[in-house]
Each structure stands twice: as C-alpha cells, then as structure tokens.
Specification:
66 residues; 4 helices; globular
Length: 66
C-alpha cells in the first residue's frame, strides 16, 4: 500500500504500474532528480495537487491486473 510519506522514487521503483497515475496528474516524476528525496505529500503540494487523490489513484493502480 502506498502512503503520502513514501519517497516518490521508492513508489516508482516498487510499483512501475503507478507511472501512468503520476502522468495523469501531470507529474513527470520519472525524469525528476528530486524524486529520490521528495515524498508524495511534498511533491503533490509543490505542484498544487490533492495528495489524497494522488495516493488514492496510486493505490487503485496496484489493484489493476494486466
């Protein structure tokens, strides 16, 4: 389960199926050097994104089989 305290890079590495969710929210986290240090909550705040909606979308992507 993904939570807002997780580092963005950790989410990307552990859950590559979540990448389209970041893109849907307009976040190009795969190209960001700060993703290693920045948690989801801070990244969302900096970009004016509702962190709860982002985390919900990320967790929903984990449930999708494909």
């Amino acid at each position: 389960m993904i939570d807002k305290e997780m580092k963005i890079e950790d989410v990307l590495r552990r859950y590559p199926q979540a990448i389209p969710v970041f893109e849907r929210f307009g976040l190009d986290c795969t190209q960001c050097q700060l993703s290693e240090y920045e948690n989801l909550e801070h990244g969302a705040k900096v970009h004016g994104i509702d962190v709860e909606a982002l985390v919900r979308g990320l967790n929903d992507s984990l449930a999708v089989k494909g």
